[in-house]
Amino acid sequence: MNRQLLWIFISFLVAILLFTAASPQPKELNLAAPDEPVKLIFIHHSTGENWLADGYGNLGKALSDNNYFVSDTNYGWGPNYIGDRTDIPDWIEWFRSDQTDTYMNALFNESSQHTSFSRSLPDPGRENQIIMFKSCFPNSELSGKPNDPAGTYGDLSVAGAKYVYNELLRYFATRPDKLFVVITAPPVSNRTNAENARAFNLWLVNDWLGENKYTQNNVAVFDFYNILTADNAHHHYQNGVIIHKTGNRDTLYYPTGDDHPSEKGSRKATDEFVPILNIFYNQWTADAPIGPPESSIAPEAPSEEAPIPQDQPHASAASPATSITLTDFETDSIPGTNGWEVFWDESSNTSIQCASQANTVFSGSRSLEIGFDISPNAWGTCAFFYDSPQDWSQSEGVTFLLHSAETGLIFDVHMYSGNSDALESYVYTIESPADSTDGWMPISLGWTDFHRVDWEENAGTPFNRSTQVAGFAFGFSTYPDTPNTGTIWVDDLSLFEGLSTSEPQSMAEAPSYEAELQVETESSNGFQLPCGSAMFALPSLLIGAVLMKRNNWI
Q1: How far apart are CA 529 and CA 183, in angstroms?
Q2: What is the pLDDT of residues 388-404, one digit of tens each?
Q3: Would 325 be classed as within a structural domain?
């Protein structure tokens, strides 16, 4: 080798050594639990309840063992019962609405348990530092296409879900003193929209923060969805790095008879989540401020390019300011109708009874009792239909009192419009909360809570308040190959003209009506409590065929 080549070679080696010395080395991930108790709050419904529970997912105990003081929200929690609403579009109301300050003040200062799990640490005081939030499995039924870009409003579609999460970053950026942990919605067994769910959750994990050029360390994502899709699917720490590995499935691998993840799936999620949470926490605390910045009091106004819809869902919201009674159930008759009528899938062994009765009431002397035994994959409904369509446009929504025989009963609330030969069906699905078994719970649904059923034209569009109303119903369907059996009672069905702006009484503070109940109530079967969302709907075409024989609507 001549001298010139030797110098070139030496210079090349020196350059490599200098580059290696100057290049930043990967920062070692810190798996250590916090040195002092850290306050964490988890926003969830039934799948989260199972995940937290001792003897099921054991997450509550595992977090406590890692020095996290865990509180949670569930049905019935918070101002305007905001805890009832955890679907993806509802996060706008939580984090990007004119009520955000109210909700966040309550959330940051909540220190109570609303479900049962071990909590061995004493309350360390101060605000919650970590905010975990999760939608339930019906939110994996996203419409649209896998690669749809973000839309301009929030709904249960790929585009709508991306819009919602992009908007959330506007609030999260104002609170670098809080760590926000997104838990992806668990999968369902139905393959219809599985590809969309997979694509959206991959976007959340891999692209969401980057696309928005979000550089703060106070937002993290844990792919609960992915972990539950296959035995070899993971989101965990291994050999010094966080590994996100998909399997060969995109539907629920750990079922229970419905779409709630099993104990095995929930415990797998606990084992993988807790070490990652420690990593998230340690990365965040490396540069987290001690307190909120002065500019964090109110969320930034939404951009003109992505306006927030004026009407946000408020199922089970605050008590109506004023109301117009549709029926108090003192008789079976409702003016302008044939009263309550029962429809069911006559090809099955389904049975359903629907009539006013005097044994279990909220006010007056009677309420509506609906007993249902729905065969797997069948349906039944208790409905009334007007002789001529009605104008309800001056009201804000519908409200009623609910009592249920057990927690976790699933039923639909239906609004019908159109003519008897072409009914349009709008639906909202409710899971009976725990408070509805102890007494009576107010349920208030705004018109935009009701969405067009999947099999009809313009599926997913909200009910237009100017549309004339043809009928109203309580409906019952089933999870695939699973029966749906139970009893609910309804009283004081009304239209409301506004919601009270004051914070409603919690159910613990509200007067108890247990003394008035004359029936035995059954306890919930374990932890299998369904999530509330627009999951089920009844075949309105079949109902319409019956009505055509009776009504001659124009």
Answers
A1: 19
A2: 889 998 888 898 999 99
A3: yes
In 446-501, alpha helices (H): none
Q: What is the pLDDT of residue 535?
A: 44
Range of the domain at 338: 320-547
* Cα–Cα distance measured from residue 514 to residue 528, given in angstroms and rounded to the nearest whole number: 25
Residue 293 pLDDT > 80: no
Kindly report the length of the chain: 554
Distances (CA, A) of 16 to 4, 19, 22, 162: 19, 5, 10, 43
Residue 343 sits in the same domain as residue 268: no
Domain count, the chain: 2
332 shares its domain with 422: yes
Is the same domain home to 324 and 203? no
Strand order in the sheet with 179-183: 68-73, 38-43, 130-134, 179-183, 219-222
In the block, tokens 């009701």 appear at 450
Average pLDDT score over the chain: 82
Judged by average pLDDT, the poorest of 225-239, 255-269, 297-311, 416-430 is 297-311
Between the two ends of the chain, the Cα-to-Cα distance in Å is 99
| Percent of the chain residues past pLDDT 70, beyond the cut | 78
| Alpha carbon distances (Å) from 430 to 62, 89, 433, 476, 553 | 31, 16, 9, 10, 30
Q: What's the pLDDT at 528?
A: 38
Question: Given strand 341-344, what is the order of strands in its sheet?
Answer: 341-344, 380-390, 469-476, 410-417, 424-431, 451-452
Residues 185 and 90 in one domain: yes
- Name the residue among 355, 348, 373, 387 with its Cα closest to residue 542: 348
pTM exceeding 0.85: no
Residue range 227-251: mean pLDDT, rounded: 94
Please tell me whether residue 59 adopts helix, strand or coil conformation: helix
- Closest C-alpha to 469, from 546, 384, 537: 384
> 310 lies in a domain?
no
* Whole-angstrom distance, CA of residue 500 vs CA of residue 190: 39
3 domain residue, yes or no: no
Domain presence at residue 126 = yes
